[in-house]
User: Which sequence fits this backbone?
């Protein structure tokens, strides 16, 4: 029996003004108050981090960012560093989301640098990986996951027994499309990811690392996904925007 506490994370992507984000974070904190046995995190836009951190004060809901730069500071217009995120109140950072890979030139190499920098800054890194529809159709899913993990985690050794690394499996074809991977498709990918993590990080760390599923997670499908042995939580986009709906996902048990 392993002891991975489920993590339900909300990626708010490019939605909400600072005022709306603070209001919704406060509402969520109230809705999930007292819920035990599950960790909760929300990741608003950079502009919303400080007001949301204030709204979450005294709550167990953690704050994450959606991206970061690998340098600690410098002439990088438009970027934020790990220490800056930490100072703004973040404990987590999402790295390598498929939207960043697709639209903003994120590569396994930049993902690798960012994860190293995140861990150095004392942030928990949520590494996103996943195949496109074309890659799945060509039966390349496991090869894609293998490469994204091996290149993304090259020379990275999070301390053993810690939960500093989280992996999110997000099949690109399931993001925002309403198509969810079946529980069995997700479990197959998650079991494979854990096997590769064991090769890279050792069995103990692979066993304690949380692997989240992302892609059209909703209150109606979270329980079935969570019933699978290697699915340890969800990275939720659209259904995390409404506090009431997201709180239902948090309360899946
Ligand atoms: O980061 C979250 C994922 O991209 C999933 O988004 P979605 O729940 O809207 O499909």
Assistant:
């Amino acid at each position: 029996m392993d002891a991975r506490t489920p993590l339900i994370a909300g990626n708010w992507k490019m939605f909400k003004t600072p005022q709306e984000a603070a209001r919704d974070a406060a509402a969520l904190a109230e809705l999930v108050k007292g819920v035990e046995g599950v960790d909760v995190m929300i990741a608003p836009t950079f502009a919303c981090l400080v007001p949301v951190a204030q709204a979450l004060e005294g709550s167990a809901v953690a704050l994450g960012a959606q991206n970061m730069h690998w340098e600690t500071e410098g002439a990088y217009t438009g970027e934020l560093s790990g220490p800056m995120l930490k100072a703004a109140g973040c404990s987590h950072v999402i790295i390598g989301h498929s939207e960043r890979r697709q639209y903003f030139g994120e590569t396994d190499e930049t993902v690798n640098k960012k994860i190293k920098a995140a861990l150095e800054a004392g942030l928990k890194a949520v590494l996103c990986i996943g195949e496109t529809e074309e890659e799945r159709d060509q039966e390349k899913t496991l090869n894609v996951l293998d490469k994204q993990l091996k290149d993304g985690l090259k020379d990275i050794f999070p301390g053993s027994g810690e939960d500093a690394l989280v992996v999110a499996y997000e099949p690109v074809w399931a993001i925002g499309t309403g198509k969810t991977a079946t529980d069995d498709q997700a479990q197959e990918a998650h079991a494979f990811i854990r096997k590769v993590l064991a090769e890279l990080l050792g069995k103990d760390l692979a066993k304690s690392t949380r692997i989240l599923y992302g892609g059209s997670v909703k209150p109606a499908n979270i329980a079935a996904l969570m019933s699978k042995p290697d699915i340890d939580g969800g990275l939720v986009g659209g259904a995390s925007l409404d506090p009431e709906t997201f709180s239902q996902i948090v309360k899946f048990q």
User: Anything to note?
Assistant: Residues 46 and 188 are 34 Å apart (CA to CA). Residues 11, 97, 170, 175-176, 214-217, 235-239 surround glyceraldehyde-3-phosphate (CB under 6 Å). The chain has eleven helices and eight strands.
